[in-house]
Amino acid sequence: MSVVKPSIPKGTRDFTPLEMIRRNYIMNTIRSIFEKYAYLPIETPSMENLSTLMGKYGEEGDRLIFKILNSGDFLSGVDLKNKTAIQAASLICEKGLRYDLTVPFARFVVQHRNDLTFPFKRYQMQPVWRADRPQKGRYREFYQCDIDVIGSNSLLNEAELIQITDEIFSTFGIDITIKVNNRKILAGIAEIISEPDKITTICTAIDKLDKIGKEQVCRELEDNGLSSLAITQLNPFFELKGSSEEQLQLLSDTFKNCEIGKKGVEEIRSMLAYVSMLPIRSKVELDVTLARGLNYYTGAIFEVKANGVSIGSISGGGRYDDLTGIFGLKNMSGVGISYGAERIYDVLQELDRFPKEIASPVKVLFLNFGKEEELYALDALQKVRASGISCEIYPDNVKIGKQLNYANDKSIPFVVMAGADEIKEHIFTLKNMCSGEQQKISVEEIIAAVKS
Amino acid sequence: MSVVKPSIPKGTRDFTPLEMIRRNYIMNTIRSIFEKYAYLPIETPSMENLSTLMGKYGEEGDRLIFKILNSGDFLSGVDLKNKTAIQAASLICEKGLRYDLTVPFARFVVQHRNDLTFPFKRYQMQPVWRADRPQKGRYREFYQCDIDVIGSNSLLNEAELIQITDEIFSTFGIDITIKVNNRKILAGIAEIISEPDKITTICTAIDKLDKIGKEQVCRELEDNGLSSLAITQLNPFFELKGSSEEQLQLLSDTFKNCEIGKKGVEEIRSMLAYVSMLPIRSKVELDVTLARGLNYYTGAIFEVKANGVSIGSISGGGRYDDLTGIFGLKNMSGVGISYGAERIYDVLQELDRFPKEIASPVKVLFLNFGKEEELYALDALQKVRASGISCEIYPDNVKIGKQLNYANDKSIPFVVMAGADEIKEHIFTLKNMCSGEQQKISVEEIIAAVKS
Fold first, then answer.
1. d(CA A412, CA A436)
2. What average pLDDT values come out for chain A (452 residues) when binned by 10 residues?
3. Residue A1, pLDDT score
4. Which of A29, A59, A366, A390 to mutate to test the interface with B (most CBs of B within 10 A)?
5. Is B17 in Cβ contact with A40 (below 8 Å)?
6. A393 secondary structure, DSSP code
7. Is A38's CB within 8 Å of B390's CB?
8. From B106, which residue of chain A is nearest by alpha-carbon distance?
9. Is the model's pTM score more than 0.90?
10. Cβ separation of A278 and B89 shorter than 8 Å?
């Protein structure tokens, strides 16, 4: 076999132990909070049928789905002449990699509806794949951590998602602002400016307000057929000021003849009433310009920003009334929120908030001084490990300097040395790798010293 | 959008909450033992370059690798005329899904060799994909849990892997036999029967002994060019009897003029000497007919069987001297073992050994009796949850029967009810869903009752 230069596909990543330990800290923290709030885990296959995925994420999304070549003689009976790439792909690929966790979740709920208990509270933490152009902070394989409640209309669910978000980021020591809005308010605004059919266009455009600014948004709206009167009437909504209650009062006045707008204001008020009764420390604020790009939202929408960090939103979600409809199950309202593991990683890194203690999962290294000493050390190692302490013995009898370097590289805080003298006295020398301090003690004392 | 019938690709699976809870129990148990033995986690991308994967698993393996269609205009400049499926695939696919964790691990070690500390002890628990024909117990996506030590020749590593295997299956309550052999013994046998170059053929054939029987194995060896004299000479090795030491004595005599065979016996003896000094409860037995199909093994090999369960091997591994050579790094001996999560699941299921308590992750459901009662319950819910107990409130005010069914379906052991009477008395009614017993108590007493 010829030698292959080791490399991985563009936009994908290897994770070294230190990165994995940090990622596991993030995932475990999120998972344990999801579980405390009574969400249950599910997993779906990495591959879905392309019929499940295609057409759910827009034309751009269809192109960004990784497609899997059919097995076996995939060309047999297939004519690829004069076909576009997307047509050809559909002839030689039946499966694609999961693009998000939401569509597979909707498919799962419909497929297993007779075995599930509703309201169904599920969490799901799995990688997704997108054939995006790789760039800083954007990968072709990344983890999403989603929770959803499906089969309940109560706004208590929205408040609970806000509380969970608050607890997750408080636990991480990340100060956040949770922005909330409601798609019915946006629908109301579209109605007020006499463009009710353009609600999707309006949401897509104002979703970009932060990125491209007000002028560009207005140009995009104009390009997409909004009248200039409508755009002028839309403008004041970009500049709403004051507390959430003041803004809601203003919207309430504006919507006095607009049912859907009124309903949106009412939903936000009920949701915020719940929020005010829960122990939430983060700022929760109404932002009428929050739109979220995805088409399927119909009620509350959320977005989370880390204060003082120049990174986009680190979490977002909302309520959808008919996500399962495409798979044949009507009247299943749900609400969910998604946390991006890599964004949280980047924020924790930037703020230097990874707990120091997670960097040293292995607590003790027993040095290897040769055959007889090894057996003496092995016996003690069993006792230390049986007490639940992660520890190891250096497997080869090499120079002590090399063994100590190993301990340093792995950030192992304690080293145990036992040579002829120690064996004679039935003791061990425990060295604290941080202070350099050494003491001659028993196995039981080693366990106590490491645990303290 | 037209309605799509919800389904998933053949050979893939959805996991419902109960299945996930059981799978998580398996994965968490294995992970915590790996960590106690000082193995560190890594992860590699789901997709690897096809140049990394192809040619590593034999011709059959090459066909079973799932290939990912190139993004964009994948047909541009490509001529598929008169190409075989495998040639055509190589023109329109650059990436494939991970087929196992071993080749990506070897690639990882070489690629990151300057950032790693050797001996490098890593664990990796990720899904792999194979385009195998789906059948009972065989899936196209399944998890592997691998540990390896690379960069150390010490046989202490082999013994440690046996100890870890013993601890994992003891924890699961699965009684196992660990079969061991050494490729050098097999190489010695090949030398003794004057067919040293046929070692791979011999290993591949006798690996099937359990499945197809001795006669078929001999026929396969004949078909692959072994002389009938050699096959006759091989026969006694199929029937070696006695304790490991008795067999080793016999082999030792047989190998008196065969260096590699002698080395194999010596390695097994040293490994078993370590094993005898470690607290291992499982049976560890030499089986000279254990071969393992994979080509890269060069020293010890292991295979684990669950006693009294008619399921194939549930774990296996061995030592390889040059796995990283194909990626340009020589002299990196390693040894590893792989645990199959689905096989362990099936065994635990068959033996009914899943711990009963994991089925009820949510401990308390607060019933919802309406607006005012909801607020009263919400307040108590916060306190119960803050104590670390997983609990929830039914989000909608629906019929009590429906809410109690929800608790039953989710196996929630306690329900809290609070109506007008309870509010007046500042107490709660706690119902034990198993015994039916009810008591009127405070929030603090609820916490104590649930925790006890």
1. 13
2. 85 96 97 98 98 89 95 89 89 97 96 96 97 87 97 98 98 97 95 90 84 89 91 88 93 95 97 96 95 86 93 92 92 95 93 92 97 96 97 97 97 97 97 96 97 90
3. 57
4. A390
5. yes
6. E
7. yes
8. A6
9. yes
10. no
Which residues from chain A sit within 8 angstroms of residue B1, using beta carbons?
55, 326
Residues in chain A within 8 Å Cβ distance of B92: 69
Q: Which residue from A minimizes the CA distance to B156?
A: A395
Looking at the partner chain, which of A6, A69, A108 has a beta carbon nearest the beta carbon of B111?
Answer: A6
- Residues A203 and A186: their CA atoms lie apart, in Å, by 8
Asked if residue B327 lies in contact with residue A6, where contact means CB atoms within 8 angstroms, the answer is yes
Place of tokens 């330990």: A21
ipTM above 0.85, yes or no: yes
Phi, psi of A141 (to 5 degrees): -135, 120
Per the structure block, which two tokens stand in for B273?
């000497």
Single out the residue of A173, A423, A8 nearest to residue B43, CA to CA: A8
Residue type present at position A408:
N
C-beta of residue B366 within 8 angstroms of C-beta of residue B394: yes
**Per DSSP, which regions of B107-231 are E strands?**
120-129, 141-150, 176-182
- Does A48 sit within 8 Å of B4, measured CB to CB? no
CA distances to B33, B309, B344, B347, B348 from B172, in Å: 12, 14, 9, 10, 8
CA distance B180 to B159: 11
Scored b (16 or more CB within 10 A) or e, B412-441 reads: bbbbbbbeeebbeeebbbbbebeeeeeeeb
How many Cβ atoms sit within 10 Å of the Cβ of residue A29?
Answer: 16
- The angle at the Cα of A300, spanning A297 to A302, to the nearest 5 degrees, equals 95
